[in-house]
Structure formats: structure tokens, C-alpha cells
Amino acid sequence: MKDEDDKWYRRLFSACCPGPSSLLLPADCECYGHSNRCSYIDFLNVVTCVSCKHNTRGQHCQHCRLGFYRNSSAELDDENVCIECNCNQIGSLHDRCNETGYCECKEGATGPKCDDCLPNYYWRQGCFRKYPDSTAGIQPEPGAAGGGPRHRGISSTACSAAP
């Protein structure tokens, strides 16, 4: 019966005051302390939090904004529930991370923030593959489609063994 009472209340309120409602039943507005305002969307029959704070988003401010991930040691109502990803701008593909805080790295980059290089790569404003000493007259040549650079007369193990 309570659901019918709620629907009647919402219909009555929307008839006198058209537009999104900020005046709702207190039980409907659950934002885990990240907002104190809700809105009722009539055609969806949904109550949603408005202006989520503390880098949260979602119908109940229960998700982290893009560029942030959930602090597993914090409760959902903690203002520090979302932690900034801090992905390395040069080593990562973008500023977003997964739910554990790991960033998506470019080729050769590694680490939670993509600020380190895989073996056989070196850092110079990004990770670059190490090649054999080019002072010996060995020049890189383009690789096959989809492959990386190759060296004339030197196997890939010689390149991977380069310092």
C-alpha cells in the first residue's frame, strides 16, 4: 500500500508543481551523504540524487566519477570513498583507471600509474624499445604490417638482449 501512497503523492505534487521535484519523501533520497538534494523523474518513476559531491556520481552517488576509483577501505558514505587515478599522462592511454586503480598503459609502459617501462624499454618522455647499438652501422628498418621495427641481419633475441 505504501507504493500506491507514494505514487499518489508524486502525482499530486507534479500536478500542482510541474517539473523535477526537489521535495520528496525522505526515504527516497538516499545519496550516502554525498548530496542532500534529489529529483523525481516522473516518466521513469525514479528518484535520483542531484549534484553529487566527493567525486561521486550515479543515481544514489554510489559510483566514482571518471578519473577516480573506489577506496576499498572506505564505507560508501565516507567523503574519501573515491580516490583520484593519477595516471601518468605520458605513459597511459587516458586519465581513467579500473576499479582497483590501475591505469591503461601505452605500449611498453607498465605499473599501476603507467609510470615505469617494461623490460627492454627505456623512459624518455614515454617508453621506447631498446635496440642494438646503432653506432655499428645497423639502422632500423620498418617492420611488417602490424609488427614493430626490425634490424637487418640481427635476430630479435639480439635486440631484446640490448642494454
Please give the structural blueprint.
Elements: H1 2-16, E1 38-41, E2 46-49, E3 56-57, E4 63-64, E5 68-70, E6 82-84, E7 92-97, E8 103-105, E9 109-110, E10 116-117, E11 121-123, E12 127-129, E13 140-141, E14 150-151, H2 156-160
Antiparallel strand pairs: 1-2, 3-4, 5-6, 7-8, 9-10, 11-12, 13-14
Structure description:
- It is a single chain.
- With 163 residues, this protein is α+β, with helices and mostly antiparallel strands.
- Among the domains are: 14-64, Tie2 ligand-binding domain fold (Beta Complex); 65-116, Tie2 ligand-binding domain superfamily (Tie2 ligand-binding domain fold).
- It is 12% helix and 25% strand.
- The chain is built from 2 helices and 14 strands.
- The strands form 7 sheets. Strands 1-2 form a two-stranded antiparallel ribbon. Strands 3-4 form a two-stranded antiparallel ribbon.
- Strand 7 and strand 8 (103-105) form a beta hairpin.
- Disulfide bonds join 85-97, 105-114.
- Residues 154-163 have a biased composition (Polar residues).
- This is Laminin EGF-like domain-containing protein.
- Pfam families: EGF_laminin, EGF_LMN_ATRN.
Short description:
The chain has helices spanning 2-16, 156-160; strands at residues 38-41, 46-49, 56-57, 63-64, 68-70, 82-84, 92-97, 103-105, 109-110, 116-117, 121-123, 127-129, 140-141, 150-151. With 163 residues, it is an alpha+beta fold.
